[in-house]
Amino acid sequence: DSHKHKDKHKDREHSHKEHKRDKERENSKNGNRQQDKHFRFSPCNLSGLSYTRMCCFSSLSIKVEEDNGYHLPIKHEKPLKRERDEDDRYEHKPKKLKVDNEKKVKKRKQEDSDYEEREVCISLFLLKCLLLHFKESQKRAAGEVEMVRWEEEKYTDGSKWRFLEHKGPVFPPPYEPLPDRIRFYYDGKAMKLSPAAEEVATFYAKMLDHEYTTKDIFRKNFFKDWRKEMTPEEKSKITELKKCDFTEMHEYFKAQSEARKQMTKEEKQKIKEENERILQEYGYCVMDNHRERIGNFRIEPPGLFRGRGDHPKMGKLKRRIRPEDIIINCSKDSAHPQAPPGSRWKELRHDNKVTWLVSWTENIQGSIKYIMLNPSSRIKGEKDWQKYETARRLKKSVEHIRAQYREDWRSKEMRIRQRAVALYFIDKLALRAGNEKDEGETADTVGCCSLRVEHIRLHPQMDGQDYVVELDFPGKDSIRYYNKVSVEKRVFKNLQLFLENKQAKDDLFDRLNTSILNKHLQELMDGLTAKVFRTYNASITLQQQLKELTSPDDNIPEKILSYNRANRAVAVLCNHQRAPPKTFEKSMHNLQTKIDEKKKQLSAAKKELKAAKADAKMLRDEKSKKAVEMKKKAVQRISEQLMKLEVQATDREENKQIALGTSKLNYLDPRISVAWCKKWAVPIEKIYNKTQREKFAWAIDMTDEDFEF
DNA sequence: TTGCTGACTTAGGACCCGAGGC
DNA sequence: GCCTCGGGTCCTAAGTCAGCAA
């Protein structure tokens, strides 16, 4: 562990040096192509004109496969039709957008009234698309590739769509009572439960193998909620959980899942087809004339709440969601989804200021759950792009911001010093912001602003380093963050001061919260919030590590190993951990055995080659020459296989406790990876699987090998 | 300023299924 | 053809952050 964290620290220190270098490099290249590109691609385009390249085709045929929905400037793009909007796009100010919009409302009244017209006149709108489509096809046919822009399609009023149509959610199947032969025992005696009580009992029975059922809070919460579902008779009889025997139920479900596995190919195929049918019917929606994949179109089935860490509500009953709990969001002029027969929706809403299609309130925390679009959708992709553009803007001002917070360490105001030290942690250690949480309602986890005295230890000297801060706290999902980091003297002195006269449970930064911090960050840079630092530091680390680790002479597997190592450096930075796979030791052992065997094979093959060479030297005939060639090839093949296995082993070992997926999916600007792949001729499929390629279609589409984050 | 809520992103674990080895 | 393993996908919890009301 300590080794890991030392490395982690090293990585961080390194990347900071690299930041400077990057900055210098960037300065020296002032005005280069990248910058132009950056401007052109800046997310102002996102809500503006430039991405409106002709998705109106797909809008007509509704074929997302042919048009990924990203309206990216392409190389052969001709000058924009609406030059006057170009200027607007040079400065990206997402957060001011709303304010700006308000100010611009009057100015744009004329344009807005156009919108309104269009809104009420969808058919005209489609007609126009049709016309554009037609024109475009004509041009294409004539070999003229010109960008046709869908000028109308820009949402500067904060709306997210004009048209939204979907089929509503898919509900889980109703509860199927257990067959009579499957019995529940209380205090050793068989007892038939009412359907409601039985259903809840099955939730518990299904989890009998899980560690959850050994936890007191889980058992207590479950039992309390279960009793609420019981009939008065059941309630009076069943008073102690430990007298409940669910084993028959448990065995029944195990047998069922076993039976599912044993199904014939045909049966499995049938289920697959049915799932596909449901996906086609409910898994897509039409948003602004694109057919888009929906992320989660199934309503969460009832069950027992599985909170993470020491969650005070674990084991509580997550109740079944009924149509009457559901709010449907779609456009007025769409075919509204129908509630299941005999039921009705809670509400039918037409709010185009939000992106969700369906929502309901869950009963554990009382929070709202949503059905939204898949990451491959235009709306999510553009947001993602915008996120990375904000992080790239931070790259430009980060040195200034760092200088500022270093200055603030000396402020005479405590709140400023706290803010500055917290920001230093967020920047240097990629900590999360750390919002306040409801005590007793959620697991006790913290982030930067909510760190407490008990989470930090100061060591003026440790392991040969000065001013070491030891951080140890439960972070998001109760994942432990443990790190020892040497900080600057002034930070250290400040921390000593913050700790003075405080108890273990007191806040380290008692004059700070995320709201204060983010307000400050907003003043430093438009759109800047605490989490942008995580995105920025993750992406810049990837870029820098790739530069450092990639050797031009490496073959593809070695390059991929380098990529994974760079990815890993980021995962370590962001503390993305995973439980080591249960079969890790075993599979590692198996792999080692394979490697040993391969080595034996190799030496055998080499011997054979040697012998064949000797033969060839003696016999000097075609046959033995051929034999040498064959043996040579065999040696080559086997050593390649061996190398591959060894790389695999290294990769797997290094990956034992680290999850690469999270950073890849959420923190690393995909354009860095795409550019790297292009530069080193690594097929993008080796880095991104199909889903990831769909999510990052925008980046794959727009990125050249010389892209710089 | 504070508390609360809604919308959206980020997160790890469970589960499924197919590739590849035997 | 069977089995194992791991990647891919699904699931949904747990964060962040802005906006609003008191």
TrEMBL record:
Enzyme class: isomerase
Name of a matching Pfam family: Topo_C_assoc
Active site (UniProt): Y667 (o-(3'-phospho-dna)-tyrosine intermediate)
One GO location term (cellular component): chromosome
Catalytic activity as recorded in UniProt: ATP-independent breakage of single-stranded DNA, followed by passage and rejoining
Disordered, as annotated region: 1-39, 75-110
Keyword set, alphabetical order: Biological rhythms, Coiled coil, DNA-binding, Isomerase, Nucleus, Topoisomerase
Similarity comment: family membership: Belongs to the type IB topoisomerase family.
Name listed for the protein in its UniProt record: DNA topoisomerase I
Organism: Cyprinus carpio (Common carp)
